[in-house]
Design brief:
Elements lengths: L6 H8 L1 H31 L10 H12 L1 H4 L3 H41 L7
Helix pairs in contact: 2-3, 2-5
């Protein structure tokens, strides 16, 4: 059974580039603000449990800055930003598409539930 394209579905179709761009910008914002913290987290996770190199998060940050400088906190950010382009664009498309599908089918689902439960839906 083919589903009719509603006005809202057509609107989503027209807005695909904007939705994808919003996802990319959100991904850049996420990684741009979180990457140094993620770097410290990764160093602590990779640290040995039997003979840890770092005493804690602050110690890891201080020692990383002393050895590598600020550039060390940003090593690998380019790969993360390239990865953010398709990942966040796809996530935003999936969320918006799902939201639109729910909005388009919500009324028909409500009518179906009302029919099987023997209740009539009020006209809106």
């Amino acid at each position: 059974m083919m589903r009719d394209i509603t006005d809202t579905s057509a609107l989503l179709l027209c807005a695909l580039p904007q939705v994808m761009l919003a996802g990319v910008i959100a991904g850049f914002g996420l990684w741009g603000s979180m990457f140094p913290i993620d770097t410290i987290k990764s160093k602590i996770q990779a640290d040995s449990l039997s003979k840890p190199e770092f005493k804690g998060t602050i110690d890891c940050l201080k020692r990383s800055l002393a050895v590598e400088g600020h550039r060390g906190l940003w090593r690998g950010v380019t790969a993360a930003l390239y990865r953010a382009i398709p990942v966040n664009a796809a996530i935003f498309l999936a969320v918006e598409g799902t939201r639109q599908l729910i909005a388009d089918t919500e009324e028909s689902v409500d009518d179906f539930v009302a029919k099987i439960s023997g209740k009539e839906t009020a006209a809106v």
